[in-house]
Amino acid sequence: MDHNLIIFLFSAVMISLSGVLSPGPMTAAVIQQGSRSGLTGMYIAFGHGVIEMPLIVLIFFGAGSLFHLEWIRILIGMAGGMYLLLMAKDLLISKENKPPCSKGGMGKFSNEDLTKKKRISSSFYSGIFLSIGNPSFLLWWGTIGVGLVISAISFGPIGLILFALFHWLCDLLWYSFLSLASFKGIKMFGAGFYKKINIFCGFVMLFYGGVFILNSLTKIMQLR
């Protein structure tokens, strides 16, 4: 492999981690949903990748400048804020304050299996919607991401493919670690800890949802 390409990929991973490790609504969702399954982070990362991979392709074709359009950022912020507020509501007023029971007879197998499938689907779609509705995520790609894509293109198609793969692996490994740590913590500390996780993550979602909507409303007032 080209020595310069290796240096670029290492730099891209370091820059990517600066965004991945930043606390935000995605992190809160991984921790909260991870309390129910150690594999949640993986499913959220797959949902995140469904948005991120086409986004890299769009930037390659010059669409990165669209994320600087004020009205697009306003729409994204409003939609993302509303989605986060709905998630916060579900977490803060939920009556389900106990982690799912891991024991049960054969008669409960089909019901538990169905619950597991719903959980996987919920985590996967959370990864999608939290990506689409996060103005910071799209702004990162419209600025830092554009620069990385341009640098990757200089190494040809293999450079772009490897960059996209390594960037997504940062998401996959970090979110998988977070969800596993959350799941182990719930098993160790029990239902009380699970309830506190829900409340904490609910307030995080409430905070970011309010920030997204407030920023969008501020932009609307500035346009007048």
Describe the structure.
The chain is an all-alpha fold and 224 residues long. The chain has one domain. The chain has 8 helices and no strands. The longest helix is centred in the last third of the chain and has 33 residues, at 157-189. Residues 100-112 have low confidence and may be disordered.
DSSP strand tally: 0
Residue-averaged pLDDT: 79
Helical stretch tally: 8
Low-confidence stretches: 100-112
Give the structural class: mainly alpha
Sequence of secondary-structure elements: HHHHHHHH
Biggest β-sheet strands, sense, barrel: none
Q: What is the terminal separation in angstroms? A: 53 Å
Strand portion, in percent? under 5%
Name the helicity range.
over 70%
The coarse overall form would be flat
Radius of gyration using CA atoms only: 19 Å
- The domain tally reads 1
In short:
It contains 8 helices and no strands. With 224 residues, the chain is mainly alpha-helical.
What is the fold's blueprint, element by element?
Layout: H1 3-20, H2 25-34, H3 40-60, H4 70-92, H5 109-132, H6 135-153, H7 157-189, H8 191-223
Helix pairs in contact: 1-6, 1-7, 2-5, 2-7, 2-8, 3-5, 3-6, 3-7, 4-8, 6-7, 7-8
Which key features would you list for this structure?
single chain, 81% helix, 224 residues, mainly alpha
